[in-house]
Structures are given as C-alpha cells and as structure tokens.
Write a structure and sequence with these properties.
Elements: H1 2-10, H2 13-21, H3 28-34, H4 49-70, H5 76-86, H6 89-98, H7 120-160, H8 167-179, E1 184-191, E2 198-205, E3 208-209, E4 213-215, H9 218-232
Antiparallel strand pairs: 1-2, 2-3, 2-4
Helix pairs in contact: 3-7, 4-5, 4-7, 5-7, 6-7
C-alpha cells in the first residue's frame, strides 16, 4: 500500500505540468481547468475554452508591449507582421508540443486523440489556456514572464530579419520549425514582352497555396509572396492542412 501511494504521488500530472512550464500555481484548479479539453467534461463551461479566450488576448498584448519597447524604430506595419508570426496558431502549438502539454491534458475517452497525435489546434488552445490561467493566478508579471520565456527568442529572430527583403529565408525557418516542411514557390501568371516581363508567384505549403504577389522578376515576386504568407499564416483558416 505504501508503495502504491508513493507511485501515485510520483505520477501527479498537475505537479509534473507545473515543473514543465516553470510556474507554481497557488490555485491548481485553474491549471486543471486549463488542461481540460471540452471532450473531457460534460459541460463546455468546465473546459479550457474560456481560459483559452483570455489567454489569446493576453498573448497578443504581451507580444505588442515587448515589440513596442524593444524595437522603438519599427513601424506599426512591421510590428504587425512580426506579431502575426509569433502569436500564430502553429507557433502556439509548437510551444505546447515542446513543453509536452498534451501529456497532461484531460481528454474524452470517446475522442480519437492520443498523446502522440493530438491535433495542432488543441495544442495551441492549451498553451493559451495555461497563459490565461497563469494571468488569473499570478497576475500580469507572471503571465508575461511565462510567455516571453517561450517566445522571446522567436520574436528576436523574426524582428532581426528584414521582413520585406529576407521574407523567404524567414518563412523557410518558420515553416520548417512549425510544420516540418519546406515552402514551395509556384508561378501563377506572367505578363509583358520578353525583355520586360513581370511575374506573379505564390507560396505553397503542404498543399495550401497562399496569396500571390507580383514582381519585376521571379526573385522579387517570391520575396513578396513569402511576405504575404508570413502575414496570412496567423489565420487558422490559412493554416496548411
């Protein structure tokens, strides 16, 4: 019996999750709610959906505040592009995956998920839900510290590149890290005489084609197309399947 009790103590998912995220909750019920998917409870009000809603807004504000103070020379448009990449659903899912948050989640038995193959949207939601829970439990400072611990390196990476002139390189880094794929560039259209053609190129990622862009040559068109993809990638409807 003593051995069983010791085993139960060693397998406390809430304790293990707190160690994984580097934050100790005063109210562990908040953490439990953040880890609970709608499939694991009778009422959706008992799931992590409300915390995910809160965490999503907090994450955006943390990113905006960081960009505002860290990069005083960036224009609003550039900050928007950086934020689009940093707070995208794929990024949140990747952070969740790195922290192994899926292994701590409460999922319904009748739902066809397993720890190794939890859908990216669920992983993104649980990261944002935990951020919301940390905010309620420890305040703005605790939430900011947690979020930036996970994302500050990515913010610096994205902001450190010339978004317009280095969009292809940046997009490739993001796509390889978050999707395990390589962007493909496709020619959609070309116009003009042979000595002065212009080209429309688009980015394709795992079968999803993003908005095309024109350029005076294919290289410039590819950079512009990559820039469009970076802007769109934050939208779940645009996420590669």
């Amino acid at each position: 019996m003593a051995s069983e009790n010791k085993h139960l103590q060693e397998c406390d998912p809430l304790k293990d999750c707190q160690l994984a995220i580097g934050y100790h909750f005063n109210d562990t019920d908040l953490l439990k709610s953040a880890l609970t998917h709608a499939s694991g409870v009778d009422s959706r009000l008992s799931s992590n959906e409300r915390l995910e809603f809160l965490g999503d807004s907090i994450l955006g504000l943390i990113c905006c505040e960081y960009l505002y103070h860290r990069f005083p020379d960036l224009h609003e448009g550039d900050m928007t592009k950086i934020k689009s990449v940093v707070v995208s659903r794929p990024t949140c899912a990747k952070v969740s995956e790195d922290l192994k948050l899926g292994s701590f989640m409460v999922l319904g038995r009748g739902v066809a998920y397993n720890i190794q193959h939890i859908p990216a949207n669920i992983l993104a939601d649980v990261f944002e839900a935990i951020l919301g829970a940390i905010y309620l439990d420890g305040g703005w400072g605790a939430a900011k510290e947690f979020a930036l611990r996970q994302l500050s390196a990515l913010i610096e990476e994205v902001a450190g590149g010339d978004l317009k002139n280095n969009a292809k390189s940046l997009l490739q880094q993001i796509v390889q890290r978050e999707f395990g794929a390589t962007p493909q560039y496709v020619l959609l259209q070309e116009n003009g005489p042979d000595h002065s053609k212009c080209f429309m190129m688009a980015v394709s990622i795992q079968g999803k084609t993003f908005k095309g862009a024109w350029g005076k040559n294919k290289k410039d068109a590819e950079q512009a197309a990559a820039f469009n993809a970076l802007s769109e990638i934050q939208n779940p409807d645009s996420e590669p399947k």
